[in-house]
From TrEMBL:
Name of this protein: DUF2793 domain-containing protein
Lineage of the organism: Bacteria, Pseudomonadati, Pseudomonadota, Alphaproteobacteria, Sphingomonadales
InterPro entries, per database record: DUF2793
Amino acid sequence: MAQITANDPEANTARYGLPLLYPGQAHKEVHHNEALAQLDLLVNMVVEGIAETPDGLTPEPGQCWLISGTASGIWEEWRGSIAGFIAGEWVYLAPQDGQIVQVRATAARMVFRSGFWRMTPTMAEPSGGEVIDQEARSAILALRNALEQFGLMV
């Protein structure tokens, strides 16, 4: 790994911009703790819901919201991003293509693709038809359950 210096533009990680430590850095624990706090928000991400503004929210440390594409006020410039609440203030995280979040308010999953958050597909239980084939229905249900278990469908 190349050495990082204080004036290096690569003093943050490439994907999420987490602060990196560099030789001779004072107060390394501040940067290290900041990176850990951001990782705490990112790993197995759960957002409380989708919001247009932080007004009216009563966040607890570690809670996150997806910022709506129609956000206003102080969140307007962060549309489509993730707002996490750490140490009494908002931290903004830019989503990465393919990132998946669980939305606590709706129990849905969303994926970030091509600049937009999209709901992951859902699959209804098999029903209808004139002839009911229990074996086929059982196989379809097993497939659906496996896809849900692995987080590919809701």
